[in-house]
Structure prediction request, 317 residues.
Amino acid sequence: MLLDGKKLLITGVLTPQSIAFAAATSAQEQGAEIVLTNFGRAVSLTQKVAKRLPQPCDVLEMDANDEAQIAAVQQELASRWGRVDGILHAIAFAPQDALGGNFLQTPWESVATAVQTSTYSLKAVSVGLLTLMREQGGSIVSLDFDGQVAWPIYDWMGVAKAGLEAVTRYLARDLGPMGIRVNTVSAGPIKTMAGKGIPGFDQITGSWGDRAPLGWDADDPAPVGDTVSFLFSDLARDHRRGDPRRRGVPRDRHGADRRGDVAAAPARIRTEATLARVPCRVFPSCRSYSSSLPSHARGRRPRPQHRRRPRRPPRAA
Prediction:
C-alpha cells in the first residue's frame, strides 16, 4: 500500500462531503495511521464523522490561529508517534461580507480574518510541527482553488487562496532542503459545507463539467482525496534525484532552478514543485503555473540569443 506505516495529521474534516474526509478515507485505505483536528464546537462534529472512516481515529483540538493549541498538538503527537510524515492543511474561512460580490465594501477586519485563517495558518501549522518532520522529511499538502483568476463571488477568499499559493512556494523553498515536500492541490468546485456557504456558488459549478476534459462531479471529492494520498506517498518524491535523504545527494536547493525560482511542470506533478497541477478531472482548468517561469523551467529550450553583428568601420572619405 502507498502509505503503509505513514503517520498523518489531517485537518478540516467536518462532514462526509469534505475533501479532507475523502483524503482521510483514502489515506487509511492505503495503510496510513491518521489523527484528525478541529476546534470549538466543530470537534464534536468531527468526532461523529470520524466514526464513518474505515478505521477509528482520534480527534485533537487545534485552532490553527492559536499557537498554544498548535504547540499542544505537537507535544501530543511527539509522545504518541515521535514523528509526523504528512500534514493536510484543509482550513479556510472568510466572513460573509468578504464574499458574494462585496469586494469593494469588505472591511479590513474581515480581510484579515480570511487571510490569517486561510493563508497564514499554513505557515503556522507547518512551523509548529516542523520538529516532528525535520529528521525524516515528509509532505505538507494544502487545498487550493485557482488563485490566478478573479472568480465571480469568490472575492477575498480568492485573494487568500492566491496568498496560499505564494506561501506554498516560500515554504517549499525553505523546507525543501530538509527533505519536506510542500504542495497545494487546486481542486475544482466541490459541494462541501464550505462551498455551499459561498453566496452564488452555483455560478462556478454550473459550467465546470462542460469545460473539464474528463468531466467533473461536484458531489464526488474522492479523486481529490486520492491525489492528496499520492502526494503523501514516497512515489511523489523528486523523481529526478530520488529521495535526497536516501541517496545522499546534496540538499542545497530542493526543487529550485539556478536563480532560486521554484519550478512547476505544466503537465505533470513534480513534488519538488510547489503547485500540483495535473490535466485530469481533479484539475479541470489544466492551467500551469509555469507561465511566469524562465523557459528552461517550463520544459522548453530557451530561445537562442542572436549575436549582434560587429559594426563596420567607417569608410574612408
In short: The beta strands are 7-11, 33-38, 59-61, 86-89, 138-144, 180-186, 275-276. The chain has ten helices and seven strands. The CA atoms of residues 174 and 253 lie 9 Å apart.
